[in-house]
Amino acid sequence: MTGQTSSPQNQGTERAFSPRRIVVAGGGPAAHRFADAMHSRGLDGWHLTVLTEEAHLPYDRVALSRALTDSGADLTLGSASMWDHEALTLQTGERVTGVDTAGKNVTTAAGTVYPYDELVVATGSDAARLPIPGSELTHVYRTLEDVRAINKAIAELTAKLGRRVNAVTIGGGLLGLESAAGTEQLGANPIVINGSPWLMNTQLDEGAGQALGRLIEAKGFTVHGGVFPSEVISDERGQVTGVLMADGRTIDADLVIVAIGVKPRDELFRAANGPETEGTAPQFQLGPRGGVVISDDCSTEVPGIWAIGEVANFGGMCLGLVAPANTMAEIVADRLHGGVATFPGFDTATKLKLSGVDVASFGDAFARTEHALEIVYADPARGVYQKIVTTDDAKTLLGGIFVGDATPYTSLRPMLGRELAAEPGAYLTAAGGGEAPDTELPDDAILCSCNNVAAGSIRDAINGCGACGGNAPVRELGELKGCTRAGTSCGSCVPMLKKLLETELTKSGVAVSKALCEHIGLSRQELFETIRVLELTSFEEVMAKYGTGAGCDICKPTIANILASQNSAYVLDAGRGTLQDTNDRALANMQKDGTYSVVPRIAGGEITPKKLGVIAAVAEKYKLYTKITGGQRIDMFGARLEQLPEIWKELVDAGFESGQAYGKSLRTVKSCVGSTWCRFGVQDSVAMAIQLELRYRGLRSPHKLKMGVSGCARECAEARGKDVGVIATADGWNLYVGGNGGATPAHAQLLAKDLDDETLLRYIDRYFMYYIRTADRLQRTARWQEELDGGIKHVEDVVVHDTLGIAGELEAAMARHVDTYVDEWADTLKDPERLRRFRSFVNAPDQKDDSISFVPDERGQMRPATAEEKGKVLIGASIPVRARDENEV
Questions:
Q1: CA angle 20, 21, 22 (to 5 degrees)
Q2: Of the candidates 458, 416, 462, 407, which has an alpha carbon nearest to the alpha carbon of residue 437?
Q3: What is the pLDDT of residues 667-703, one digit of tens each?
Q4: Rounded distance between C-alpha atoms, residue 218 and residue 223, angstroms
Q5: DSSP for residue 285
Q6: Burial 586-617, CB ≥16 within 10 A → b, else e
Q7: Torsions phi, psi of 658, nearest 5?
Q8: In this predicted structure, what is the pLDDT of residue 11?
Q9: DSSP letter assigned to residue 740
Q10: Would you say 721 and 741 are in contact if contact means Cβ atoms under 8 Å apart?
């Protein structure tokens, strides 16, 4: 059976003049994936209209937890530019309310009628509600509006009550635990009520569920299992006060979230099956528990109508998982382009991290297959549970469950239904047997289940077999992800993807080099350790032992950076000045017109009126453009090279020091006003920010570093967007690491919570020094953490638990930095020889560069003159400095 009304190949000349109309009802991830699949296959002869009731572009529901903790998070799927295609129309705020199968059109709540030739229904599901008294006072966890409402409610209740909010989540499944983890990050007390005796009972067996419960209880969660709620209690003002349980207990609550599952939004099909259409129009088949029944080509009983995602019932099931929804979307796109793809069934594999706890489940996790064997390792004390399910001969993999340590999941998941390369016990890594055995994936093994990408397709891309529409081989991980889509959804397959890339390159005779550059055969990490252990102090020493030639713009500044991170000697002395990038050589950021910016340090953003006056006087005297930066300090632009010492002398004399905006080092520690003034603050964030900035100032690293300190869960300092973020709690500080802005932004991840001041500093010392030692050249902390084997768990092991036994060493290295720090500009001003660098012309030290000129801007300041304004003279054309390095800021 197929719902396809006609094949695009059979439309003849009619198609060229009258595009066939596809209407998509719904605008969630499944709808977006279908539109993307049609777009990538070509829309010649088609016009596709997507009708979504939400006000947003299609967004990633899997990442809703990000929006819960950051109300401004952008979860938009793909590139918004896709919707600019002339054959693609996205209508937001348009909810489809009716389908006329005979007339082949849909009607929206606004009364608009959209005719179609093919209709794809992707209406998804709704959050299930509790049929108990007081349920109208609860929140649900389903849409952006839902999670933003929860975020707002927790913030308002925290301010109103003056204490931590008791946030109760009813439901101990995937969504419930994700919701509870989000409330915990917002500073609430996370409380989970679960009807089953153990958590995630749909994915985990009792042993795994109990292990998960112990782990998250150890992280401050309260779990009530094996009992159901009977009423949500409130006071006379309608404020929630508790949840009455079926056993008579009352659990204190200030806010209640219901996350007990979802129900398919199949009302369009039910309405179309109404009595008025009986006998006059084809009827849809609905599942006993909802959803419209589809065949293996994703068509419904009615020709021309397809269903994908959570509303589609296949094999008696509707599932809210991204992988099958993506597969269905691709199948319908393939069918409409004349293909024969079929839906293989639901992949119920699940992998997630809840408050730092790894959980994974896949295949026949409950060993329901006849004669199945269960090979289990359980360590209740550590909260670790690993299980592999195989056939009775212990050879073929049927499924598995992992809690606390899900390391084997990545390599095992693609081997589902296949013979294992080793005996099953070898994959239980928590038992102390080392890493899981290497697995050679067959070409038809699905490596990325979210996007249904087989290992063979990835090999084709790597080996240049036309997988990306061309024959050029793929050599980089980022390019491979973009080409195949593998690793672009949940990301759990990225380690396996990277491993496959390196394996294939090695097989092809392509060396997977980690060399820093053509002159240095060592990686940055190896080079750092070599310089540290041998106590090398100069570029010449390093090159004599481990390099060739005279070096280049890659190895020179890298070696200079490593030498600077080993000791606090003046960065431009002993020949190191010639190694530095332009900005480091001038101790200032070079601008587009050849002038420089001056950025004094303003620790924590706190500054006295007197010091503000100094900055104002300097800016007035030297006619500098002034701008308050995103890091809470003041940037002054337009200084000529020879003016820098004069400007800095006035600033240093007034008590300022270099803000190091030019270096691969700590930039700023942003802070909110904190408990000193703010009525919502629970800790003194300004004092902590100043302490951190003064401690880590001048710290040279592989890339720039930024920090933030927020005085409460409202997060005004945007700490989770920083390399290290500190957020105050009623019991201390929560420490987040690995956040970055830029082209590929990342939220920092929770490393430790409720820390006292001393422990907080100790952990940050260890984190920064471990990063400086092991990261690649110009690698941000977010990318470094992603590429570490084990990710944030590995960072936690090293920084918090000291599993490598180097904590004391890392702390001692940081202590040396703190003890020997000297301000670079203060040092520069003391030495006439150092000041000789700051001349526009080496052979005419007293001559000014007259090619630099400025004009007033429309806001009362000055700006660089354009070429036309300067009589066609290029800006800074006569300044004898080298071009700005592409990696400089």
A1: 120
A2: 407
A3: 999 999 999 999 899 999 999 999 999 999 999 999 9
A4: 11
A5: P
A6: bbbbbbebbbbbbbbbbbbbebeeebeebbee
A7: -65, 135
A8: 40
A9: B
A10: yes
